[in-house]
Amino acid sequence: xxxxxxxxxxxxxxxxxxxxxxxxxxxxxxxxxxxxxxxxxxxxxxxxxxxxxxxxxxxxxxxxxxxxxxxxxxxxxxxxxxxxxxxxxxxxxxxxxxxxxxxxxxxxxxxxxxxxxxxxxxxxxxxxxxxxxxxxxxxxxxxxxxxxxxxxxxxxxxxxxxxxxxxxxxxxxxxxxxxxxxxxxxxxxxxxxxxxxxxxxxxxxxxxxxxxx
Length: 213
Prior knowledge:
Blueprint: H1 2-24, E1 29-30, E2 42-54, E3 60-66, E4 69-75, E5 86-96, E6 99-104, E7 110-114, E8 120-121, H2 123-128, E9 137-147, E10 151-155, E11 162-167, E12 180-190, E13 195-200, E14 206-208
Parallel strand pairs: 1-2, 4-6, 8-9, 11-13
Antiparallel strand pairs: 2-3, 2-5, 3-4, 5-6, 5-7, 9-10, 9-12, 10-11, 12-13, 12-14
């Protein structure tokens, strides 16, 4: 009887030891600016997708950014991501041609934490640091100030911040001044007119009414 209890005790201890080993051997979560300190080691990075493309060999290059910098992820395989998605990736840090990158050999080591269209930003937040959102998909909510055939001006409730919204794709929604709407598109810089704008130019972009309305 005692042998049975001892056997169960050793089994439980073994499981706990394996659990502790797995916990302590997990790749550390770091910010992008720290990546040079972890060459050849496994780390976990989080960031917003700013670029992505497939290579001719079937792998995928995904560039992510956080408040401290940007880095390219080399993924063996392919995952459906969009500009503005927040992702997390675990892989090995390597230096390739004087550029730091994260090598991810298993697609299961890359996760999408948040889809870009599930997060809405107030205009003041984008105005404080517009370069952070440049060339990625974002959602904004505000009130229409004025409307033309190709664009409209979106402002916040206090009219302290504004953003030009271009909508080149036909949308089944009537727009009028004073209307509260949610606009999703690509945040870009208009070099010709020297201003930031939101361009509704892809099928995954759009104009909707807030859920409460």
